[in-house]
Amino acid sequence: MPYSKLSEVLSKKLKDMQDRGALKGKEMVVCGIKAAKDGQGPRFLIEGFGEREFLRMNSNSYLGMSFRDEIIKSEESAALEFGTGPGAVRFISGTYRPHIELEKKLAEFHGREAAMIFSSAYATMLGTLASLVDGETIIISDELNHNCIINGIRLSRPKLKELYKHLNMQELEAKLKDNIGKGKRVLVITDGIFSMRGDFAPLDIISQIAKKYDAEYEEGVITLVDDSHGVGAFGKTGRGTEEYTNAKGIDIIVATLGKALGVNGGYVTTSSTIINYLRETSPLYIYSNPITISEASAAIKSLELLNSKRGLELLEKLRMLTRRFEKGLIDLGYEVIQSEHPVVPLMVRDTKKTSDLVSFLIENNILATGLNYPVVPKGDEEIRFQVNADHTEKDIDYALGILKRFREKK
After folding, report:
1. Which residues are the active-site residues?
2. Kind plus residue range of the DSSP H or E element containing 220
3. How many angstroms separate the CA atoms of 11 and 5, rounded?
């Protein structure tokens, strides 16, 4: 076969990944969902596990929006009206009324002038950086930022790239001070919520530092936050890390429709001038189809629900369940990184023990994500649990009971 030599090379690379512990391996396939009943949340059927019902504690669907009847009906009705796909990119004939309405509602939700949607949050970050970074741009980035930011920086080719130690505001300020005169524009980039750890960036302090040095650069200091895990899951009204830290002066927010909002796609929200420029220049927007019209309609309904009394109730339930789970883990003697965010990392700090605990959880019908070296630094191995609003107290107590049994069997 013409690709036999390439297959041999790639097989060796896969073997090397396996030896390093970096191979993700076979994906678990969800083949059915059992609705919530008897005081427990939804249960998931996994291919190869027969009729065993799994409690899913590794989902980004923090508010359980994807199972809500009104959101499903909104998606269904839009598909009946407009069809299953947009049929074109936005600037040809792929822009539909729900796309425009969603962008308007997202901008209003974040208190910004404008917003634009992409096919995913990953594409949003790459497409935004590709347009806003030029040969005179300096990027200063938290060392634990998400892969989309790392690759966005690589692809955008800034004049200089600087990393500051995780959440180290003194080092961030030092980088801004040291680079005066070396470029015209600075982009300070951070995750809002760091998805491996559940901790958050102090956006209030970051915005103050950026403002302090803005006049030192000809084209200013711009703050850009990826708050994909924050929006809909953090802050009193679900407006994310900006709301939680009461930050003033964050210039650009990138986020997703595919986590707490329960649908699909990503977006950026900022000033109307920047959005207009991105529409004209961002390759991942110009040359890719948008999300479907039905997805846009479902996202509108999710956003309306989040922005209602019911949304506040879901957020309070999410916080309550997160507190219950964290306290339970601490009472059992486990180490966690505490935060109000529903990502709850159980720090194991050993590769074999992490793998053993993941296997034990699966044996007991719980899905959680084990993070081992080299995905995380050696010594930071963990189980990442994610609490959802469609979990129940019974679910949380069941998971804690299984984790208690694991400690007792050691």
Report:
1. 195, 229, 259
2. none
3. 10
